[in-house]
Amino acid sequence: MNHHDLWHEIHDFLVHEARLLDERSFHEWLDLFTDDVVYWMPDRYNALGMTDPADGISKPGELALFEETKETLHTRVARLATGLAWAEVPPSRTRHLVTNVQVEPSDRESEVKVRSNFLLYRTQLEHSQDLFAGTRDDVLRKVDGKWKIARRTILLDQTVLSSANLSVFF
Amino acid sequence: MNTPAVSQMKKLVDTTQGLLDRQIFFSQEIYQQELERIFARCWLYLGHESQISQPNDFIATYMGEDPILLCRGSDGRIRAFLNMCRHRGNRVCRADQGNAKDFMCSYHGWTYNTEGRLIGVPGMKEIYSGELDMDRWGLVPVAQLDIFKGLIFATFDQEAPPLLEYLNGQDRELSIMFDRRAGGTEVIGGVHKWVMNANWKYAADNFFGDDGHHTITHMSVRRVPVDKRYYASTNDDVSDEKKRGLGLIAEGVIRDYHIKHFDELVERIGPELADRPGLVTTVFPNVSPNFTRHMIRVWHPRGPDKTEIWSYCVVDKDAPEEVKKAMRLHLTQTFGPAGNLEQDDMNNWVQCTSTARGLIARRYPQNIQAHLGHEDKIGPIGGGRRLRAFYARWEMMMKADNWSQVDLKTKYF
Q1: What is the number of domains present in chain A?
Q2: Annotated catalytic sites of B, by residue?
Q3: How far is A113 from chain B (nearest CA, A)?
Q4: Domains, chain B, ranges and CATH?
Q5: Among residues 2-31 of chain A, which lie with CB inside 8 Å of chain B?
Q6: B45 neighbors B63 (Cβ within 8 angstroms)
Q7: Most buried of A28, A52, B78, B363 (most Cβ within 10 A)?
Q8: Chain CA centroid to CA B213, Å
């Protein structure tokens, strides 16, 4: 497949994923991940100077906002499905906007590296509004002819989150 | 049944009747008084020694709404200052953490060392004719700073009693979490920080003494099959009676670790404390350690209807890496903005705060009557008594003109 077609395929995949999230089809969304997925949202902070791009990002092994396996993602989705997870009662209305998609080959033939930026608008109840902006570094793997997310690193741009909780997915 | 009205209350906090005036979650005037009478006077938690383990390490934090620089000087001593240039007020440090020998203000270049001394003023000769007394214009230091088991506290009140006196025995409780092993504790890097539109007291009283909310607020977690490594939640499933204090601890590597070192714990803190079912509390006013979740939580006030939440992961320094990792993952799964338990707390507090905006709502007091008159039926550490005790302490600080009017001996926990 040439790069142009590959890009379109990946882009369609990400747009489809965003739609599943916005429609709250969380079980279908879970199916987009490999069983060995690492879903990670490190912490951001203000470092001195910021000379290294890794400055201001918590390291693997430090406290993260999300540090998930397929199993823990399942628990989160199951919890939301109880209807008793009050952070999502009533459910948030979300709009996952995905842009700036870049696709690069990976060392493994079955995988590609994908970077995308996102803007997640979320509103809930009467007045609550949140905007989450950031970037995602994904590793997508072809499994039985379908793309699956094998690794996702989410960098939110805020250091102090201006929202009461993170009860939505990225 | 009669609905009590605020007009029937003699004061903002009525622990005898178990009533709270909703003003205290709404009034800007009361909030300003809280900053003066509570946050400018009480011992406040600044950080953990392990966060500034090396000379010139610093972290930025807050005492009330005042930005603070907590530094370990090049001499190894720990100090804390207002993070404010004495010249025009710019912050002298914009980083959250790091290592620096000095701090230069980015406005006019006044420069301070880690002891807080003003060591450089551009234009000293040309602008100030060499007359500026640099000794008088150092960073504003806290009045007192002390460390208990790695926990760094400070106060801006010279008259405040010493930290241990202030803790009045709560230091014994804290040892359940911070004195288990000879090596003490350490903070794992990475801090959860987020903001909610709720009054700080809802969160602080919740950790101190709102035992009654677990079943309803966090019921979703009981309804899904969960990994016992993350959600052990009964106190009955540790067969060895001696180790019942570990019943709330997650199964697997974390509980095994604590069982392995239980004798050491008993030796260090005694059987009575070792047997307690963990530790979730608030050191008045706004730091809440939670042993079960390996967490220190700080509630920074940001107005009557806004709180900035900072959350740290704390582990025994001597614990194996595998155990530290399990504790970190446990915390991420349960607490923090994305925690499956804590996600559901914040909106409750936000709405409790927002209803207090209502004029009519404020005519009706809040009910803090849990176990009122039946305190003998609850255990030595739990129950609604603690909720009332939190507000009794709050009221005492708000009323006291000086520390001689503060009775720290009051058993409030």
Answers
A1: 1
A2: 108, 210, 213, 218, 345
A3: 26
A4: 44-148 (2.102.10.10), 169-364 (3.90.380.10)
A5: none
A6: no
A7: B78
A8: 20
The answer to whether residue A166 sits within a structural domain is no
- pTM > 0.90: yes
Residue A112 included in any domain: yes
Residue B240 to residue B253: CA distance in whole angstroms: 17
Burial of A5 (0-12, 13-18, 19+ CB in 10 A): exposed
Domain span at residue A135?
3-156
Residue of A nearest to B350 (CA): A164
Using a CB-CB cut-off of 8 Å, the residues of chain B touching A165 are 194, 337-338, 342-343, 346-347
CA-CA distances (angstroms) from residue B330 to A57, B29, B178, B276, B313?
21, 40, 18, 21, 10
For residue A61, give the CATH number of its domain.
Answer: 3.10.450.50
B367 min Cα distance to partner chain A (Å) = 22
Task: Give per-residue pLDDT as tens, A86-132.
Answer: 999 999 999 999 999 999 999 999 999 999 999 999 999 999 999 99
Which of B92, B103, B193 to mutate against chain A (most A CBs within 10 Å)?
B193
Q: Checking DSSP bridges between strand A146-156 and strand A33-42, what pairing results, if any?
A: parallel
What are the tens digits of pLDDT across the range B277-291?
Answer: 789 999 999 999 999
Residue A165 forms part of a structural domain: no
| CA-based R_g, chain A, Å | 16
Q: How far B188 CA sits from the closest chain A CA (Å)?
A: 6
Q: Measure the CA–CA gap between B55 and B59, rounded to whole angstroms.
A: 12
| pLDDT tens sequence across B247-271 | 678 888 999 999 999 999 999 999 9
Token pair listed for A44: 């951001």
